[in-house]
Amino acid sequence: MTVTTARPRSTTRSDFAELNKRVTARGLMERQPAYYAVRLSLVALMMAGGWTAFFLIGSSWWTLLVAVFLSISFAQTALVAHDLAHRQIFRTKRPSEILGRIIANIGVGMSYGWWMDKHTRHHNNPNHDDLDPDVAPEVLIWATESAIGRRGLAAFVTRHQAGLFFPLLTLLGIDLKVSSVKALRAGVVKRPVLESVLLAVHAVVYLTSLFVVLSPLQAVAFLVVHQAVFGVYLGMTFAPNHKGMPHPTGDEDYFRKQVLTSRNVKGGWFVDVALGGLNYQIEHHLFPGMPTPNLRKVQPMVQAYCEEIGVSYEQTTLIESYRQALRHLHEVGEPLRAARS
Prior knowledge:
Strand content: under 5%
Largest sheet: 3 strands, mixed
């Protein structure tokens, strides 16, 4: 783990303005159409290749290998939808929303509007106990105060949540679909009719394909493997970013609020591809509209600037990031374990 600190100098809210000026001068906020043309093409080929293999293999247990491949394809598709939501690909809102709904709703089976609203609130207040929906007390608890008073099954899960973390990720794909439907029924998503139709198209085509091509038992097995591996992979791309990092009070300035709650993951090109660029989480939170390939370029600048003004900058390996997240989950559940002893 690498944590960069330095003797702090006098700082103000203009710190980000100074860094932003340096980054803009380097042209790092400029769109990268060639990169995204290649990336979108590769993701489309993965999806097309996976479904082609599914239909060619037909009713066979070998299709479970296709289910694993399509899980990876779905996760990479979702990561592209993430970049669209941040307008990293297109400058304007309309083409981002059109392609985003196609990719998220039809391609993955997740409401683009619901996820975009949720993710925007996360970016505005990362790791804030009351304002960040990603750390809201649900199945997993990320703040000790939220664990106190839990009873029954909820208490059991909290006591053992570190060990249950990865098994629970197998349900993430289903949870995204359930949460999408709930949001559409609650009327909190713009264009609810359009998004509902697109989700219905995904569900009908997906389930029909499974139960027409495969035997009933094979179809159920395919669905379970596909959604479980997809959930684990997608969860593993987001877990290293903030889990186990400080929870702010909300009084911090923009620069510190984004940097101190985020963690970078190093590991070279493989990690860059596997995590869709989210391993540069600090840079992504400071410049959410910056195209993914530029995050690697701006990283040394941000790290050096943090050292210059005395702000901690955390960067670690992928495995260590999971250890920190699991350690935090274990510590949060300690009061409930102590109460039973």
